[in-house]
Amino acid sequence: MRVPRRRTWLGIAGVLLVCLAARAPGADLSAANAPQLIKRGEYLARVGNCIGCHTADPARPFAGGRPIATRFGTIYTPNITSDPETGIGRWTDAEFLRAMHEGIGRDGKRLYPAFPYVEYTKLTDQDVLAIRAYLGAVAPVRFTPPRNDLAFPFSLRWPMVFWNLLNFTEGRFVPDPKASAERNRGAYLVEGLAHCGKCHTPRTVTHGLNASERLGGGTVAGWHAYNITPDKNAGIGAWSDADLTAYLSTGAAPGRANAAGPMAEVVSNGTQYLTQEDLRSVAAYLRSLPAVSDGATRPRANFDPPARDDVAALRGSPAGALDGARLFIGNCASCHGWNGEGAGPYPPLRGNSASGANPADNLALVILNGVTRSTQRASVFMPAFAGQLSDAQIAAISNYVTNRFGNRQASMSAEQVGKLRATPQ
């Protein structure tokens, strides 16, 4: 039976229309929403903690608007849902790749390095497009984030050309032929997708990463992102692989540290989803790095506090408004125990990096802001005391904890607490 020529041409035209629709902006064939591609993109987006920065309102995931405080002003993260008007719904694959690899937006303007393109440039095209496929499957949200609030001349984009000349090298990750596949995978994750150096590396005068002290510790919103090089005192050299994998997957390494602040968010949104293979790869890579020392003579969690019964000693003694022991017993001991040994989900204060660190900024910030950390294994919550305790009272508790359970050299003043209180989180 012969098909009429007119019907044949109509069929060909229909196929052409389908192809043209598939090639419309924001719908590149290479980003086809295949289930396996979306699933892989979801994993990669979690490891990169994309939701952490691009979500201000949990009811609008990936819609942006989260303020990021910098010393130059406040940057508000963009909407990266597939909404065509306010998000990235009309972006092509090439435009998305350029933003991730080169730090250049769809409009041709240079992005600020609050977005980690300095690290994402190392990602393969396949991984970037998998992330794009996943974001395309996320429910679109019509939302326009606030405009950035940056002081002149940082409000201008073109000076980023000079910043990039000093601090950015575009190019994909190149495996070390002398290293194992496991170590190379860890390098790809730590240096690229997970962008660990963004927080854990000190900054230069231009606010770029200090390559000579890579992963030797940095500061984020007042929090110390500790040294994660193999130095046995300042870093993680004394940690076992089990300690590292437990910390990344649950936020807690008993006798070592408990994630709080930005790191608690990283664990909740990202590292808890790492496969066992990737966890081992991260540990292998971190152990292979040059150790960076800050002069510490013992690990933060390795302090032996004196054995004494403060509760008995306080009986019958006059109370003082800034009595650290009484403030601790009244506000903290019900969960952490009067002897600081903790119980259940409440971590011990002995053998805890927050109690053993000098300075004790992280400890004071935990008291101020509390802790919220949720993983597939457990949820941890500590209330914030910023509204109940003064700067002087928080300083008194912090000093009592460091002196009683940790580093006696650490001290905190009311003025220091006040500065931490005023630091945007």
UniProtKB/TrEMBL annotation:
Required cofactor(s): heme c
Keywords from the named record: Cell membrane, Electron transport, Heme, Iron, Membrane, Metal-binding, Repeat, Signal, Transport
Cofactor: how and how many bound: Binds 3 heme c groups covalently per subunit.
Primary location group: membrane
Domain Cytochrome c: 36-139, 181-290, 319-405
Annotated positions binding heme c 3: 332, 335-336
Record InterPro entries: Cyt_c-like_dom (IPR009056), Cyt_c-like_dom_sf (IPR036909), Cyt_C_IC (IPR008168), Cytochrome_c-type_DH (IPR051459), Membr-bd_ADH_cyt_c (IPR014353)
Signal peptide: 1-24
A GO CC term attached to the entry: plasma membrane
Residues where heme c 1 binds: 50, 53-54
One family name in Pfam for this protein: Cytochrom_C
GO molecular function terms noted in the UniProt entry: electron transfer activity; heme binding; iron ion binding; oxidoreductase activity, acting on CH-OH group of donors
Cellular localization per UniProt: Cell membrane
Binding sites annotated in the UniProt record for heme c 2: 196, 199-200
The organism's place on the tree of life at top rank: Bacteria
Name used for this protein in its record: Cytochrome c family protein
Organism: Caballeronia choica
